[in-house]
Amino acid sequence: MKKAISLLMVMTMALGLLTGCGSKKAETVNVGYLVHITGDSALWGMAEKNGAQLAADEINKAGGILGKPLNLQFYDGRGNSADSVNAVKKAIEQDKVSVMLGSNLSGPTIAAGPICAENKVPQVASFATNLRVTSDDNNKTLPYSFRLCFTDPYQGKIISNYAIEKLNLKKAAILYDVTSDYSSGICEYIEKGYSELGGTILTKLAFRSGDVDFRPQLSEIKAQNPEVLILPNLYKENSLIAKQAYDLGMNIPMIAGDSYSPAMFEICPELKEYYTVQHFSWDDPALTEIKTKYSAAFKEENPELNAAMGYDMVYFIADCITKANATDGETIRKAIETAEKVKLTHATITIDPETHNPLNKEAVILLLENQKANFVERFSPSK
Amino acid sequence: MIKFIQQLINGTSIGFVYALIAIGYSLIYSILSFSNFAHSTFIIAGAYTGFFLLTAVSLPLPFSLLGAIVGGILIAVFAEKVAYRPIRERGNPTLYFIIASMGMSIFGENIVIATIGPKFRSYPPILSVTAYQIGGISISVLDIMAAVVGSIFLLMLMYVVNKTRQGMAIRAAAFDLETVGLMGVNTNQLISLVFLVAGALAGLAGFFLGMKYTVFPQLGNLTMKAYVAAVFGGLGSLPGAVIGSVFLGIIETIIAGYFSSTLRDIFVFALLILVLLVRPSGLMGAKREDKV
User: Fold this and answer.
1) Of all helices (H) and strands (E), which one includes residue A177?
2) B122 with A266: Cβ contact below 8 A
3) What is the percent of chain A where pLDDT is above 90?
4) pTM
């Protein structure tokens, strides 16, 4: 008798477990999101998480994905690779997520990549700009890794296309940091863009990180008489360069990458005709709605821009899952790879199947003048 | 040709700031025969004091400049009393001075990061006109100011060293500190005086550096170049430090402008090694046995 009871109990327990699993799988679409909500980069991670939650709530209110509720779960990577790997393992092995979103940091995202690939779960990074996020050391594209932001070198393409197509500045000079990967990576694309579009790089001069005096290089550049000065550097160097260029009597337009900081006006208050390429800007009218919603929901006047990225990430994956019409990793992977013209708030995304990066993604162009950053337009290269 | 003249002006102005640093450094070397790496801390002290007086207290420019000098002096004299004097009194080898000065330099940089923060801060725009344009050549007002104020201080220093009793004591101490002590000169007071002068010049240099390039905890790293300049000119020689500094400033500018800035430091330090091999006492230095 005792034996029979215990057998019965074991059987009910097993049945309970089975139905538990089965029902969960059948009823929700499980999506994991790697965010860094503790540690040094918590400020940005938190904004991204809240933005994503906002989108998930909206999607569920409107009926979910494929008729099932979206079950978006967040995993804290604490801003480092080891914790991120553990978090992603838990998401995939225990919680059986179909797709892994995030993160905004390159290191942890690269570290989590192999785990996603082993389990055939696609990974979509938000703000990880390092080239190695979507390709291996031999520049071979990683089949399960994607991203929605543009890479650092891609800024070089935007810069050269914008300078030539929009501003008609064909004779350029470059002043870049020879010790920085960021700077020389962008440089390469600028030179390529200029030669493809019929522009000329009159001179390309370097400095070393830590330098504060750029007048020797600027005097040389001035003698070449370029129409535009291209500066793929960090904000502090760029503001000092601008200041010293004005002192040398060089008053030409300048274009820089995504290294904008309001502190630039402190260093060089007379900054003018200075264009910068940004991923996002709250001054972009398209983002006003997200900002209003976010501020209302989380009582924050000036949220970090990652909020908008988190929001769009969820809408992007919802679109891909809907198109895949399935919740298994492999089918979703194919849907992401072939995603075309997915209209999000901050940009319209087409994934390049070759590189797994967004193809000719729009960037926001800001013009720094009169002590403030002015939104000019969204711009994407024509080819 | 215009470009070349412009580069000469650029180089001279960089050299002048090197000179303010190199002289204080050279002065301390000539008395105590060791490389005072803590000199960078004196510069940072001047730069931040000037910054806070201009922004938080809104003092006018001349007073802020004086304040920066006082800031440099206080830190320099304090460093001497706290770190160098106890080592000297125990009669420890020169190596201990160098290690203590390295420690202080690292301490200084990090205490600024910990208390004020690692951010770049910029001096408020004080000058209404920032540069004069003369026939395609541009001269920065700040550079003129730095050159004029710097020259006044250097001439004053030359006068003190060559014409006054204290100056004579300093010159004598440069020959032999112990003997000077035996002759009845208060060496502790004399060394404090030397640190005071070095601190004042470092504070002044810090103020100009801050105005020109913003203030940040690693600002003092520029001192490395001033060391090189001091060795070029001849350690222990004041005119040598000035000549070495301007020489270095111009060479750097010309290499960065005409060749490549990647070659700049390679060239400068190769030249340093060459000078040490061919003319160990520098362009104008006195012959000495041990050089650190």
Assistant:
1) strand A171-177
2) yes
3) 75
4) 0.80
